[in-house]
């Protein structure tokens, strides 16, 4: 049995693991990174539609969920979005800002992966892909990890950067959570987040004809609201506004949707009715406010198929409510199959916020998505991966 010894073993060559390995390597630590995927940074590669929304210029703790979102403050401050942008600039990677401070590569997410793998090589990090970590045991002051190729790695510091459970097809498992529990750490409840929401059959029958229709919406769950695009799908609702609210929504709860935020629908329909003797069809008038297909479905549902002159103001008020006061109960979500992230994870009260080291097991670190720190849609999750990876890299 082949046994090798490193100062640091990093499990997972994702955003967080690579960042940590680079920093530890630069400090002169001998570092090995192991990933059971065929290539490093697979989630980076598919992120942001292949262009990787690598950070958000407005990142702050307000953009994160978890038992204690303030936990993230130290790492986000020590290695901020501005530090990562400088790094991307130094690597000569061109980027652009989309809406809401979201930064994307102009060309390809692969440039970010290349930047990180080049930096790992320069820092002397040994990277092994296609090799998983099966078991880990505490041995003396350090750890012994059994790899899937039959070899063993001994290390003083073990950094768990194994990500969450989303997209199992890409090899995501709950391995990091299991290891945390094995080491006696608390793990908060995990659930799919940044995920499309689904409807039950009866409701789907009404909304399926709208599949593909997108609106700029305000979507609320409890006191939380997001104003972004929303998309009707064959399963329910998707689009940025829905992915965002999915992190706050819980089974059994309703969400409320305004599909023409800021528009007084009733006043506009009444004004249209007063023109030309109300000859305009109701769906045509409503089609000036929301997409035509949505207007047709809503007017048919409210029995307002005719001309404006033929319907009373009560019906127009019902249309107003259907557009800007839609309360709907999703039955569930599309789950980890399509979720961008996992909400919950290793409880932050078990970790040191400066270094990501566990308080109870010296030498054991958790970084990135496996930790109970979850960002909004918009580049925040990668920023957490860079910041937490950097913080652990200074200490492990
Ligand atoms: C489709 C999609 C698009 C996304 N787009 C964006 C975006 O544009 N911007 C953004 O901020 N966030 C985005 N995210 C979220 C982002 O990808 C994650 O938050 C981020 O990748 C987490 O980084 P990580 O290093 O913690 O984990 P990961 O990137 O998941 O890396 C974990 C690695 O550990 C490996 N691993 C797990 N268990 C083991 C084991 N036992 N042995 C060996 N290796 C193991 C896995 O193979 C994986 O490579 C997206 C997510 C998805 C699914």
Automatic annotation (TrEMBL):
Its cofactor is FAD. Residues 7-394 form the RsdA/BaiN/AoA(So)-like Rossmann fold-like domain. The keyword Transmembrane does not apply. Residues 191-341 form the RsdA/BaiN/AoA(So)-like insert domain. Keywords: FAD, Flavoprotein. It comes from the Bacteria. InterPro entries: BaiN-like, BaiN-like_dom_sf, FAD/NAD-bd_sf, RsdA/BaiN/AoA(So)-like_dom, RsdA/BaiN/AoA(So)_Rossmann. Gene3D superfamilies: FAD/NAD(P)-binding domain, HI0933 insert domain-like, Translation factors. NCBIfam families: aminoacetone oxidase family FAD-binding enzyme. This is HI0933 family protein.
């Amino acid at each position: 049995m082949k046994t090798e010894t490193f100062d640091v073993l990093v499990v997972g060559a994702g955003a967080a693991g690579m960042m940590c390995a680079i920093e530890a390597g630069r400090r002169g630590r001998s570092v090995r990174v192991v990933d059971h995927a065929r290539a490093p940074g697979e989630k980076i590669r598919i992120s942001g539609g292949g262009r990787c929304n690598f950070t958000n210029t407005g990142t702050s703790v307000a953009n994160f969920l978890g038992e204690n979102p303030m936990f993230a403050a130290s790492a986000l401050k020590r290695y901020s979005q501005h530090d990562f942008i400088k790094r991307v600039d130094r690597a000569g990677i061109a980027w652009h800002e989309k809406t809401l401070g979201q930064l994307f590569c102009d060309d390809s997410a692969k440039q970010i992966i290349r930047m990180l793998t080049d930096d790992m090589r320069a820092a002397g990090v040994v990277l092994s892909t296609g090799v998983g970590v099966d078991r880990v045991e505490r041995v003396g002051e350090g750890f012994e990890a059994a790899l899937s190729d039959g070899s063993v790695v001994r290390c003083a510091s073990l950094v768990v950067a194994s990500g969450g459970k989303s997209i199992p097809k890409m090899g995501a498992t709950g391995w990091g959570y299991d290891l945390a529990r094995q080491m006696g750490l608390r793990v908060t409840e995990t659930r799919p987040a940044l995920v499309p929401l689904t409807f039950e059959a009866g409701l789907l029958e009404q909304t399926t004809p709208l599949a593909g229709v997108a609106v700029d919406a305000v979507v609320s769950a409890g006191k939380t609201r997001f104003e972004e695009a929303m998309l009707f799908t064959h399963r329910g609702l998707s689009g940025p506004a829905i992915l965002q609210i999915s992190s706050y929504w819980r089974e059994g709860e309703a969400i409320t949707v305004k599909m023409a935020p800021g528009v007084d629908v009733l006043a506009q329909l009444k004004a249209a009715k007063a023109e030309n003797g109300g000859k305009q069809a109701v769906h045509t008038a409503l089609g000036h406010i929301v997409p035509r297909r949505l207007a047709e479905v809503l007017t048919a549902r409210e029995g307002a198929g005719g001309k404006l002159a033929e319907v009373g103001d009560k019906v127009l008020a019902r249309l107003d409510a259907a557009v800007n006061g839609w309360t709907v109960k999703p039955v569930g979500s599309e789950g980890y199959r399509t979720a961008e992230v996992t909400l919950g994870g290793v409880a932050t009260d078990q970790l040191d916020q400066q270094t990501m080291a566990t308080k109870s097991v010296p030498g054991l670190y958790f970084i990135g998505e496996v930790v109970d720190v979850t960002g909004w849609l918009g580049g925040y999750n990668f920023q957490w991966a860079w910041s937490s990876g950097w913080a652990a890299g200074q200490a492990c």
